[in-house]
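Suppose you are handed a protein chain with no further information: no name, no annotation, nothing but its sequence. What can you learn? This example shows the usual starting point.
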Amino acid sequence: MFDVNVKILSELKNFIAIVSSNRELLSKFCSSEKDFSLSRKLPFDKLAFFIIRLCKKTLSVELERYFEELNKPMPCSVSAYTQQIFELHFSFFYWWNAVLCRSYCFYNSNQVKRWNQYRPIASDGSNINFINSAALSKRFGGQSNQNSFYTLAKTFYH
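A reasonable first move is to predict its three-dimensional structure. Written in structure tokens, the prediction is:
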């Protein structure tokens, strides 16, 4: 199993390397044309690797530790990180997840459990309470009790 995990991580790392080295491809994952064009302390590849670290402490502590591991003398600030993360378009995560799923299924093809030849996928839903306003109530509807009316929306994740 360890070898499979190493192969999957290698695929994810390879995806980032390919995107980093191809400006045209990188531009597909930028919020604007100028994003990731300047030399920064936290370029695209370093930003992506930092995101997957799953921070457990404060952002400033995690950034400092990350730059120590990179043997870089001075970490970027939390503000600089925030500015860089806004340059990253959400589609990057969609495609990076697609690489992860494809790698997992490829390297674990004999271990992926199936039900009637289908691969089950989990789903969940929830309610979101909105601020009561006429526009939101008209759009989403809601629920009332003897005391008041609540504007609600349904969510669905899979």
